[in-house]
Amino acid sequence: MARLDTSPRLDDPDALFAALMEVHRGLSPDASRRLDARLILLLANHIGDAAILAEAIAAARAAGDDG
Amino acid sequence: MRTYVSPNYQAAARPGRTARHPVVVAGGGMVGLTIALDLARRGISVVVLNAAATVGAGSRAICMAKRSLEIFDRLDVGARMLDKGVTWSRGEVLFHDRPVYRFDLLAEAGHHFPAFVNLQQYYVEEYLVDACRASARVDLRWQHRVVAVAPDADAVTLTVETPEGPYRLTADWLLACDGAHSTIRAALGLDFVGQVFRDRFLIADVVMDAAFPPVRRFWFHPPFHPDGSVLLHRQPDHLWRIDFQLGAEADPEIERDPARVRARVAAMLGPGVRFEIEWISVYTFRCRRLERFRHGRILFLGDAAHQVSPFGARGGNAGVQDADNLGWKLAAVLHGTAPERLLDSYDAERGPANDEDILHSTRSTDFITPKSEAARAYRDAVLELAGRYAFARGLVNSGRLSRPAVLVGSPLNTDDDAAWDGGVPPGAVAIDAPVGGTGWLLERLNRAPGFALLRFAAPDEADLPDVETIFITPEPQAGAAHDHAGLVAHRYAAVAGDAILVRPDQHVAARWHRFDALAIVAARDRALARAAPSRERSHGKA
Ligand SMILES: Cc1cc2nc3c(=O)[nH]c(=O)nc-3n(C[C@H](O)[C@H](O)[C@H](O)COP(=O)(O)OP(=O)(O)OC[C@H]3O[C@@H](n4cnc5c(N)ncnc54)[C@H](O)[C@@H]3O)c2cc1C
């Protein structure tokens, strides 16, 4: 049933991480939070599949609970 | 300036003896008056007890939805409301001072009534009162306050206070329409389930000559009120509704101060605009309902049964649909054409319908008044994206406006036994369309107060017991409604030979791609709860 692809798919993980750091540089906590929210909404719309999004939301939550 | 003077209705005399009545309605607000009028039209005599001496104070509900107007039209007060009200269907949402989202609730032509009419609640009530007073079957008793209720198995006894002292009366059926602070609900010790919101809002009704178009305008964080949202609506009489979000910490006493309200309005309108404040109200709201709307011989309607936030204009419009749903059922029980259990379907149908209103209203409120930093960040992120990207506009929620309930899964529905490509499924309300010269399909249905069959065929002799057939033809034909624009066939996804059974409240009960008198009678019986409820279709709550 699982359709959220959690296998490693990024060609250059370090570059993605750096890009995220870069876009948040110098932002206040509030502005950072809104930026992340905009990013999530853009990606969610791109994915467009409610079942996958629900799985991703649950997976994000669960990974935080374990930690 | 005062744009409205409340009528002063005379207190009714205190009756001498304890009389028994088939139906007593407690409360004469828009919901109590609507059901009283509906029952009267169906031949039932009704006593309406109203604690007040006049219509409700303040404009309160101003947005009357299309479905409410259609129901009012069946009760012969729709035209008056349409004449007096301000018609609108478009809305605009702004973020800071930029428009980010526009919507049109009824972009298509070919409907008698518009998506919405803005009309102060006191006018709605006054027009309903006038119609009730013109009816010999409505006994409207002003300044009669219900103070106690004693229900038993076959009647409800009420104690009523009047200026001349108390009296008792007995009712076969008591309809509790006594509003959010319902005496009857309290007397029965019934609880509400749901949510109470802490945010305070301020309503200012302002008289001014402004040239704004009749568009619902909603601002998030405008420059003139950076800490909250503002909603602007046009009403008749040069009256404008302005609704300011004040936040949870606001002090209602301070916020009600007219000088302070003036300053807020002046900041919004800009210099040089002259205005007068007509009504100020600081309010909070709740999204909640009774678990069950029927308690034996007592049925709850309107705000006495459920409450929502004003965003979406769902409160009064839901109450009018409650009345529409219950009126024909109670009349059928009293006329002996349906068993008492038909009244359980009022709860089975209006329960889920009100849940949907509560869900939408709660979601809108959560968007408008974010309760956490994360909620606030997502809300603002949506607004920041909406100016640029169409996908984000669908996420903007400044109130999802009232739509007629679709009674999905109702035990009164007969499921389709063949495929339909769209149209109006069982449980949905009949859609209007132009017929005949300048007439309307719903107008034609209004003249069939019981069950009606829309038959897409040339008139014939086929006779159905207690079902009035309305023939619909693409060409003009004697004895048929002429579907001259083809919109009836189009909106109902109907072809020649189809038949659609419509209940007295104009919800579709069943539909077929054939004419089958036995199936029609069976569907009518099911819609009257004559057939014993089968297990898998019963929707009773535990
Ligand atoms: C600011 C605001 C804006 C709103 N905007 C909208 C909108 O745009 N659209 C919409 O659809 N809804 C709106 N609503 C909601 C709407 O006003 C209510 O849902 C509506 O008034 C409910 O009608 P009702 O008849 O159930 O109750 P009420 O209007 O409260 O009427 C109750 C009646 O019962 C009588 N009564 C009370 N106690 C007793 C007693 N013990 N004995 C006898 N009589 C009694 C009262 O005198 C009154 O006549 C708004 C509400 C508010 C506050």
Features:
heterodimer; A: 67 residues; mainly alpha; 3 helices; B: 542 residues; alpha+beta; FAD/NAD(P)-binding domain; D-Amino Acid Oxidase, Chain A, domain 2; Glutaredoxin; 8-stranded mixed sheet; 7-stranded mixed sheet; 28 strands; disordered C terminus; binds flavin-adenine dinucleotide
Explain what you see.
The complex is a heterodimer of chains A (67) and B (542). Chain A has 67 residues and is mostly helical. Chain A has a domain at 30-62. Chain A is 72% helix and 0% strand. Chain A is built from three helices and no strands. Chain A has helices at residues 13-24, 29-47, 50-66. The two termini of chain A are 25 Å apart. The mean pLDDT of chain A is 94. Chain B is an alpha+beta fold and 542 residues long. Chain B has three domains: 20-83 and 116-193 and 287-364, FAD/NAD(P)-binding domain (3-Layer(bba) Sandwich), CATH 3.50.50; 194-286, D-Amino Acid Oxidase, Chain A, domain 2 (2-Layer Sandwich), CATH 3.30.9.10; 434-541, Glutaredoxin (3-Layer(aba) Sandwich), CATH 3.40.30. Helices cover 27% and strands 28% of the residues of chain B. Chain B has 14 helices and 28 strands. In chain B, a hairpin with a 2-residue loop joins strand 9 (145-152) and strand 10. In chain B, helix 1 packs parallel to helix 8 and helix 2 (66-74) crosses helix 3 (78-84). The termini of chain B are far apart. Mean pLDDT of chain B is 94; it is low at 535-542. Classes of the chains: A mainly alpha (67), B alpha+beta (542). The structure holds flavin-adenine dinucleotide. The site of flavin-adenine dinucleotide has 35 residues of chain B, from helix 1, strand 2, strand 9 and helix 8.
The CATH architecture name of the largest domain in chain B reads: 3-Layer(bba) Sandwich
The portion of residues assigned to helices of chain A is: over 70%
Averaging pLDDT over every residue of chain A, what do you get?
A: 94
Total strand segments of chain A: 0
How is this structure best summarized?
The complex is a heterodimer of chains A (67) and B (542). With 67 residues, chain A is mainly alpha-helical.
